[in-house]
Design a protein that fits this description.
elongated; 11 helices; 10% strand; alpha+beta; four-stranded antiparallel sheet; 366 residues; two-stranded antiparallel ribbon
Length: 366
């Protein structure tokens, strides 16, 4: 079978070599194009807003994976509604995010503008005083009475000293004010940077924050390992209990993951139901810590829905790799991601086999 695009691009002589695509092939090609479009939208969202893009990308990829299974008209209609919802929600959050960033920048600029204005006003005030003092000195040249000249000079010197003392005092106050304003500016800049590198839902580092800290470790040229985790069964929780329950589960899992990690470890949400942990040390040391982490983090969680929320068991597919000296971030993450999805496929195979052994029907596993 050839793609619809290739079929339409064939000239008349080549058309005789191929049979026209049937309805099933057209549907398959259309769904393939739809899945590719969802992937492209996710990538564009990530480039447009690295802070909020990972969540959109992950959500759209889940929808695209759903279209890879048995497709029915209700599923396509449901997917259409979910895509519209995801894009609208992402658009609103992105607009709010950039409005906050613009507000930060405007406030910082106003602080600097007020500081510059106060310095200009002070300089103008003292320039006027020095101008008046200069006129008085010029007037002295016309006097012939020496005592009168001496008295005027003494008064002028006293006025000049008072002016200089006042300038020095104002200078100290201006410096103190500027230091305070600079401190405010630095605090706001740090806060803006913190928000830009943290996931709004879980409080963990987001993709941008993780990549920044990965690069620092690479620049330091010290051994470290990267652990990628993809939650199993998270889609079923969303489907059964709703997205609010899914968000609650992500926050609980994030809290446990952070608590089970050392203070030197980096814990981040990569997007959707994927997490990443950076462990300092070689693979043997990291493996030992990972085993302890799994005992603490994997297990039963109670969803906060009403007075008695349902309990769900959560674990994850894991891919852990050690950084090779000189290896770029992209290649390092790709290796961890490959191992993680290899384990996920194996877990899927075992779960499916066990389900069939019990006489059940095949169910999605994500």
């Amino acid at each position: 079978m050839i793609s619809i695009k290739k079929y339409l691009d064939l000239d008349s002589s080549e058309l005789t070599k191929y049979r026209p695509p049937n309805s099933e092939e057209i549907l398959s090609s259309t769904l393939e194009a739809y899945r590719a479009a969802l992937g492209a939208m996710g990538s564009c969202g990530l480039r447009a807003c690295p802070t909020l893009g990972p969540g959109l990308q992950s959500s759209l990829m889940v929808l695209a994976e759903g279209l890879a299974k048995t497709v029915t008209p209700p599923l396509v209609k449901e997917t259409e509604g979910q895509v519209e919802h995801q894009l609208q929600e992402w658009g609103e959050k992105t607009s709010e995010y950039f409005q906050q960033r613009a507000g930060d920048v405007k406030e910082i600029l106003m602080v600097l503008a007020r500081a510059a204005e106060s310095v200009a006003e002070r300089d103008q005030r003292y320039a006027s005083q020095f101008g008046e003092f200069t006129k008085r000195l010029q007037a002295l040249a016309k006097l012939e009475d020496l005592p009168q000249i001496r008295s005027a000079i003494v008064r002028g010197a006293k006025d000049l000293k008072n002016c200089v003392d006042k300038m020095e005092q104002d200078g100290r106050e201006s410096v103190a004010a500027l230091r305070s304003q600079v401190s405010t500016y630095e605090t706001k800049l740090e806060e803006a940077e913190r928000r830009a590198s943290h996931d709004t839902l879980t409080g963990l580092d987001n993709r941008q924050g993780v990549e920044t800290k990965l690069q620092r470790r690479i620049d330091a040229n010290r051994p470290f390992c990267v652990v990628m985790l993809d939650l199993n069964g998270f889609k079923q929780v969303n489907d059964a209990y709703g997205h609010q329950a899914g968000d609650d589960l992500l926050k609980q899992f994030s809290t446990e993951l952070r608590s089970a990690s050392r203070s030197t470890d980096v814990v981040g949400r990569w997007g959707g139901d994927e997490f990443v942990v950076i462990l300092d040390g070689n693979l043997t040391e990291a493996q030992s810590h990972l085993e302890r982490m799994q005992k603490w983090v994997f297990g039963s969680y109670t969803l906060h829905l009403g007075t008695e929320g349902p309990k769900v068991d959560m674990d994850a597919a894991i891919g852990m790799v050690e950084w090779n000296a000189g290896e770029p971030i992209k290649d390092l993450l790709a290796r961890a991601d490959t191992l993680m999805y290899k384990q996920k496929a194996e877990m899927h195979r075992r779960a499916t086999a066990a389900h069939y052994d019990k006489g059940g029907k095949q169910e999605p596993y994500s």
